[in-house]
Amino acid sequence: MAMPDGPFLDYAAAVKKEIAMPVIAVGRLGDPALAEAAVTDGKADFIALGRTLVAEPQWVEKVSRGEPIRRCLACNTCINEMRGGARIGCVVNAAAGREAAFADAQPARGERIAVIGAGPAGLTYASLVAGANKVTVFEKQKLAGGSLRYAGKAPLFQEVEANEQSFDRYIDDMVAACKSKGVVLRLGVDVTADPSMLTRFDHVVIATGAAYRFGLGRFATWALDSGAARWPGIARLLSNDRLRNWFYYRARRGTAARLRYMFCVGKRITVIGDAVKAGKSNQAIASAFEAALLPGSGGRAV
Length: 302
Known about the structure:
- By secondary structure, the chain is α/β, with parallel strands linked by helices.
- It has helices spanning 9-18, 32-40, 51-55, 59-65, 77-83, 99-102, 120-129, 148-151, 164-180, 216-226, 232-238, 241-250, 260-263, 281-293; strands spanning 24-26, 46-48, 112-116, 134-139, 156-157, 160-161, 184-187, 203-206, 210-212, 252-254, 268-271, 300-301.
- The strands form 4 sheets. A 6-stranded mixed beta sheet has the order 7-4-3-8-11-12, with helices on one face. It has a two-stranded parallel sheet with strand order 1-2.
- The longest helix has 17 residues, at 164-180.
């Protein structure tokens, strides 16, 4: 993800000038505007998409309709899992490699759903159930994305060098996808201060993420916001697998335990993502897919 978009486009254009046969360009061409320009500007006759279609199998259909896509992060999870002998997987598309499990998906219909938290799990859930339901997402921060916006500031994400732009684009397109399906996003609104805001909803989905323990929250956000996390010595330390996993799983804890009883009177409650148990982004997004499309198998019902 640290590489720029379309790194081989100029090379493809140079080849195209020298030969009479069609040229297919490949490499970080998942941005719809860039993909279209590659052909219309004459740099290539076709484009090839790989990881992009793992993240968004409906890329062609959505782009042709002018709809927001689910962006590939270019984190190489799909490639690395296959190289390791596992089935293909994807951080942002939990159905990748599990298509049969989601073939008969039966999401809820006709419900009034409140999603608390506009992080990756909350946005994913909202985007998947919108259209057939009336969905409102509440987020106490003034910006959607939750802790995923910090992921690009760390030295590594999964096994590659992290890049903020990759996460920002993914979040922005997820927000756009939600809005295009009629989701109401209420940013800068803390429902814990006034739970009566949830009175009119049939179903409450808690996607409030995880909170740091031991007072580490301020240190973590300072290190990431200030750029200290990328200083050579700290970067080496934070790139250690054991320490990274400790920060993911042990240094944080789910936030749902203190919230769900606040909202549970007369409501159906589902807890998803890190709000259930602190973990990594792919696990949080996977729980959102399962709770949205396979009710009863994902998240945690209360």
